[in-house]
Amino acid sequence: MAEKFGAKSTADEVLSGINLKGKRFLITGASSGIGLETARSLVSHGASVVGAVRNLAKAEPATASVRDAASQGGSLELINLDLASLQSVHACADKLLADGQPFDAIIANAGVMATPFGRTIDGFEVQFGTNHLGHFALINQIEPLLVDNGRLVVLSSLSHRGADIDLDDPNFEQQAYDPWVAYSRSKTANSLFAVEFNRRHRDRGIRAASVMPGNSLTDLPRHFSPEDLQELLQTVDAAHRSGSAAERVERNSAGSRNVGLGSSRS
Ligand SMILES: NC(=O)c1ccc[n+]([C@@H]2O[C@H](COP(=O)([O-])OP(=O)(O)OC[C@H]3O[C@@H](n4cnc5c(N)ncnc54)[C@H](OP(=O)(O)O)[C@@H]3O)[C@@H](O)[C@H]2O)c1
């Protein structure tokens, strides 16, 4: 591939001239933000996309733009998946396995960031449970559906540098909850999962990667106060204007007490 892409390349630019007819993708969290745009771009290039979403009533209208963009045989279907419930995860996996249609790529995109303390239905801290454990359970169960030479892409974040996983206290039972430490831990887990999945399945030609998708203003900071969001945006903007790398954006953000990142170790 001779094309060079950079931080501002769009999904459509990357897929320009590529026909994905006959290719099938699973995207978690296709109802918003990066997952929605990924689905739109893939179906507009002919791919069949299964969007796994936690709220079908919200996702149906939210993904109208994806269906409108479909061309060259591209299509979108939705399936219910609440990553914060292992029962829902297994039900989704069972349905996909019963359907039996293979995937050329799985994109583990869904996520929550810096939420107030909460637990998943199964009692795990909500960011670790949603971002990592739900995906871990889902993807390992449906791994037989991933074709030989298939791809797994796990959306991580540069925030993974903020904290390692704490296997002694993954649910913040022995320490004060910090929403950013919890997010960082979950993103470290996302990255390590991709590394290990890649190692375990490379004999089938499968490649797994975790990615930092860049900084995009999506619904991700939905728990921020307007003041905290404003501060984060100013930090990102200042870093962009000074021409610095995305890494510096996250590091600067991590130093900002007002956006609650002060305890990050990055
Ligand atoms: N945006 C950035 O700058 C940025 C930077 C670094 C990493 N990331 C990563 O990129 C990924 C996508 O984030 P985004 O920015 O597109 O955020 P977003 O707009 O908030 O989208 C997140 C998606 O995840 C879904 N989701 C949340 N909890 C779920 C659950 N329990 N079960 C199933 N789906 C669930 C949401 O569903 P609803 O629509 O129902 O809420 C939504 O579709 C995340 O993993 C995030 O950590 C983003």
From TrEMBL:
Q: Where is this region: Disordered?
A: 240-266
Gene3D superfamilies membership: NAD(P)-binding Rossmann-like Domain
Its domain of life reads Bacteria
Q: List the InterPro entries.
A: NAD(P)-bd_dom_sf, SDR_fam
Keyword Oxidoreductase in the entry? The reply is yes
Query: What Pfam family is a match for this entry?
Result: adh_short
Q: Which GO terms describe its molecular function?
A: oxidoreductase activity
Query: Which keywords, in A-to-Z order, does the entry hold?
Result: Oxidoreductase
Q: Enumerate composition-biased segments (Polar residues).
A: 253-266
Could you say which protein family the record assigns here?
Answer: Belongs to the short-chain dehydrogenases/reductases (SDR) family.
In Swiss-Prot or TrEMBL terms, this protein is called: SDR family NAD(P)-dependent oxidoreductase
